[in-house]
Amino acid sequence: MVINTNTSALNAATQLDMNSANLSTSLAALSSGSKITSPSIDPAGLAVSMQMSAQVARTGAAQDNVNNAISFNQTQDGYLQQVNTALSRMSELAVQAQDVTKTTSDRQLYQQEYTTLGSYVDNVKTQSFNGVSLFNGATLNVTTDGQGGTFANVGVNLGSTTYSTATGDSVSSISGAQKAVKDTVAAIQQLASDRASIGANEETLGFYNAQLSSLSNNLQAATSQITDVDVATESTNYAKQNILVQSSTAMLAQANAMPQSLLRLLS
């Protein structure tokens, strides 16, 4: 046994440092809720989790875009329901104006209401959603995923000739009323087609929304498997490391005391 170099104490000190580092790592994991409290713990896992977290953020942004597009379409359809009511009434007035028992003055009353309803339809085409025109007929490319994929949201054009012709008709004469019937029927048919397009847009966007929701949930679950600490397992590991630290400390004290026994040989 030598005095200058206490190999047992050095080994015990090294083991104590290792156990203390492991205990600190376990304590950090339990206090933060994350298994990766330092890049050195799991470099590959950290890289993968960062990429997944970024994809989750992009997916959330795409889902916001899709939900806003759905709201856009729902707003369009809300207006078109009222336009349908207006056009239906206009076609009714056009038929009533053809009544041979009605006088010119009577038809003027029908014309007044017809014009008012036509003005309402013409006004709807100028409406917007957050500054974006609802009825200019433009197709909007809605971002549907985190990689920039898009869906062509088909637009509705209330300024088309079909609508403007019907709203510009006059029912103040029988011949004018006959033309107005044909034009309003054509406008209602066009409106039915436009509402069907909006319905298809909403349906498809709903599928994208469900798809993005599922993707986001699964990405977050996968990220959790990499980064989130299992409290039960880590608590057990913490207890183990705590015991090892105490044991290493006790053994280091014993190793440091060993040279003292050599003094008895000198006495």
What does the secondary structure layout of this molecule look like, with pairings?
Layout: H1 7-32, H2 43-96, H3 104-124, E1 128-129, E2 132-133, E3 140-143, E4 150-153, H4 161-167, H5 174-227, H6 231-257, H7 263-266
Antiparallel strand pairs: 1-2, 3-4
Helix pairs in contact: 1-6, 2-3, 2-5, 3-4, 4-5
Plain-language structure description:
It is a single chain. The protein has 267 residues and is mainly alpha-helical. It is 72% helix and 4% strand. Helix 1 (7-32) runs antiparallel to helix 6 (231-257). The longest helix is centred in the first third of the chain and has 54 residues, at 43-96. It has 2 domains: 7-33 and 229-266; 61-227, Up-down Bundle (f41 fragment of flagellin, N-terminal domain), CATH 1.20.1330. The protein has 7 helices and 4 strands. A two-stranded antiparallel ribbon has the order 1-2.
For this entry, give a set of tags.
267 residues; mainly alpha; 7 helices; f41 fragment of flagellin, N-terminal domain; two-stranded antiparallel ribbon; single chain; 2 domains; 4% strand; rod-shaped
Short description:
With 267 residues, the chain is mainly α.
Parts with pLDDT < 50 across at least 5 consecutive residues? none
Write the CATH homologous superfamily of the largest domain: f41 fragment of flagellin, N-terminal domain
How many discrete structural domains?
Answer: 2
| Helix fraction bin | over 70%
Report the CATH C-level class of the largest domain.
Answer: Mainly Alpha
Largest sheet: 2 strands, antiparallel
Number of helices: 7
Shape descriptor: rod-shaped
Distance between the termini: 16 Å
Give the amount of beta strand, in percent.
Answer: under 5%
- The SSE string, one letter per element, is HHHEEEEHHHH
CATH topology of the largest domain: f41 fragment of flagellin, N-terminal domain
Average pLDDT over all residues: 88
Radius of gyration: 39 Å
